[in-house]
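Journal club prep, notes for RB
We'll compare a predicted complex against what the paper describes. Inputs for the magnesium ion case:
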Amino acid sequence: MISLKGIEKIYKNGSIEYPVLKNVSLEIGQGEFVIIMGKSGSGKSTLLNILTGVDKPTKGEVVIDKTNIGNYDEGKIAEWRGGNLGIIFQFFQLIPTLSVLENILLPMDLVKKIPSKDRMSRAMQLLKKVGLVDHAYKMPSALSGGEQQRVAIARALANDVQLIVADEPTGNLDSKNAEIIFELFNKLKKEGKTVIMVTHEREMIKGAGRKILLKDGEIVEDTLVEKEAKVG
Ligand code: ADP
Ligand code: MG
């Protein structure tokens, strides 16, 4: 489903070059739950940005569903993202001037994949899924961090996407709220969604199928978690 081939990313500052990703190749299949780990600065966010087309590699190919997205222009990539990809960030990034419900309706109204007559009931269903129906008409600022992240998950699912990408989604949450978020991701995996998540939390690995470790812009470990668990 997703294939990265020989990805390099070099940031330039004047004449100085900073290589951030070095020859990263990777294949992720439909329905996989992949955890990406690695120290701060190892290139995790850059890798997510490249595999979602938010950023372009300096070298190498990104092929998603047999399409080389390097051949897409910005508009086409944005269109593809809208209908196929849900992104979840560490700091939720809800729109503060919109209610919880409106935050979830917005991507549906923008992408128009879900028929307009179904959008409201779908938004309420998604809020039910994340346990926040009672908060539909509140503003995001009235919710706790854990609740806001659950809204962000509902929003990411709004357009019935198959691919969910999350960059340290529990990085700003206490362990109890992190647990709730992990459970939701596990549920998504069980529903057959492809989930790619950057996290520092080791407990999360149990739920995932695969762990990738980045070090200084290179994949130094790529293991199936079940196998690892048997050995340990
Ligand atoms: P991680 O998410 O693993 O913490 P990042 O992918 O954010 O790492 O960053 C990897 C490296 O690339 C860091 O050293 C960071 O400073 C550098 N970097 C990230 N974005 C830029 C940019 N736009 N310009 C220059 N350097 C950057
Ligand atoms: Mg990061």
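Talking point for the session: The pocket of adenosine-5'-diphosphate (ligand 1) is lined by residues 11, 18, 20, 38, 40-46 (CB under 6 Å).
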